[in-house]
Amino acid sequence: MNKRFFLIITGFLIVILLVFSYFADRRRIDEKSMVQSDQSNLNQGVSVVMKPVDDETGLIIGPGFNLVKTNCLGCHSGKLITQNRANREAWKATIRWMQQTQNLWDLGENEPKILDYLSKNYAPQQMGRRAPLQDVEWYDLQE
Ligand code: HEC
């Protein structure tokens, strides 16, 4: 076997190896991010639909996301939002509370949009179990 032929074959093998390891790596990363989103889904309890989540803020991406990103993350992280669940009224009350005590500014015409976003994406969770039985008429077992 001449030397040149040997070098070409070795070079060829190295290239194949590099390409292969690149793709193997990418698959691992894909699998990892899939596992992560599965887990965050578990944390949300029973929700079945997977909503896309912004990596940087942890907030669900949807209409109003940018408004929340610009108005709500100056003083605390998005965690404070994602850890909370409330209906529209309660979200409004939280905003009022921050305005009265924490110097949150007037949100103006953005407020309804922000409330839409919050009450849609961070609504109270569905109960995991059925409600307890009520008004049951019990009867004595006959022998
Ligand atoms: C001017 C600063 C500021 C801005 C802007 C701000 N917050 Fe807050 N927020 C606070 C402070 C301070 C707290 C109390 C933090 C703590 O208890 O550690 C707080 C607490 C909260 C809490 C937790 C309330 C509770 O009952 O525990 C939520 C939820 C929240 N903010 C949501 C929001 C949302 C939604 C926005 C955007 C509309 C927003 N914040 C914008 C200052 C701000």
From TrEMBL:
Residues spanning the membrane: 6-24
Alphabetized UniProt keyword annotations: Membrane, Transmembrane, Transmembrane helix
Transmembrane as UniProt keyword: yes
Superkingdom as given in the UniProt entry: Bacteria
Protein's UniProt name: Monoheme cytochrome c
Organism: Agaribacillus aureus
